[in-house]
Design goal:
- It comes from Dissostichus mawsoni.
- This is NADH dehydrogenase [ubiquinone] 1 alpha subcomplex assembly factor 3.
- Essential factor for the assembly of mitochondrial NADH:ubiquinone oxidoreductase complex (complex I).
- It holds the Pfam family DUF498.
- It is found in: Mitochondrion inner membrane; Nucleus.
- The chain has 192 residues and is of the alpha+beta class.
- The chain has a domain of 97 residues: Hypothetical Protein Mth938, Chain: A.
- The protein is built from four helices and ten strands; from the N terminus they run αβββββββαβαβαβ.
- The strands form three sheets. A five-stranded mixed sheet has the order 7-6-10-8-9, sandwiched between helices.
- A hairpin with a 2-residue loop joins β4 and β5.
- The chain is globular, with a radius of gyration of 32 Å.
- It starts with a helix and ends in a 13-residue tail after the last strand.
Amino acid sequence: MCRRLNMATAVCARLLLQRSTHGFLFSSRAGPALSSPFLSRAHRLDPSDDEMYQRTSVSVMQKEPGSGAMIYSYSSKGFNIDGNKVLGPCALLPPAILQWNVGTHKDITEESVSLFHMLEPRIEILVLGTGSRTERIDPSVLALLKRKGIAVEVQDTANACATFNFLISERRVVAAGLIPPPVSTALSLKQE
């Protein structure tokens, strides 16, 4: 009996060694667990096998309702926010767009940022656009916002607009204080 059992296991082992190498079955007839043509190494995908290869259509993505204000453009005069033209510096808050009474980065004080930390629900991030260059903000202002639990990102206005739009698209609770960049004379034409 033992001899027959040993002989049967040897035959099974030999059959398995013939049919598999490194764990892959190379037989054209796979067992029930491997009956799918996708699990066979010789099968090639063609357009009828997968949705990914089927004809696709593209639809233009629209702004989702309630996703927040988006900044479409800026100039030395102001901003285009959701089709609204805002002249001069502005504060973008989750529910509103307000004129912001600052002229330069030096005018950003604890009093001028007080409207950002009084909001409910509390904002996570305040993006400050300081004009044509990134400028240093008074450390006491940054310390106040940190105590209130608001992260601050200070950038030039062009990058601040892009950062604000990105954070809004991620549905973050974000606000922005933006100062338009001054008129650039580098690209102006001289009349002769």
